[in-house]
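User: quick one, fold this
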Amino acid sequence: MQPSELISEGISLMLFGMGFVFLFLTLLVYATQAMSNVVQKYAKPAPAETKSKPAPASASAAGSNDELIAVMTAAVHKFRSGK
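Assistant:
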């Protein structure tokens, strides 16, 4: 086999490989678009977001935070004591 034949065969193999990859990626794009269209057609629409004002902090919320801190402190203490 002469070097020119080898180079010619290498180039043809390279073009075949690149063409195959290009074809596969093109098909992949179309398949992804088709699946997206199917999902959009049959998926339930997302619920509309409602803009609500956050509730103001009250005294009971502050007491709740104190209780939460106490519970977390007790849990950490128990974990560190190994019991």
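User: anything notable?
Assistant: Residues 3-44+59-81 form one domain.
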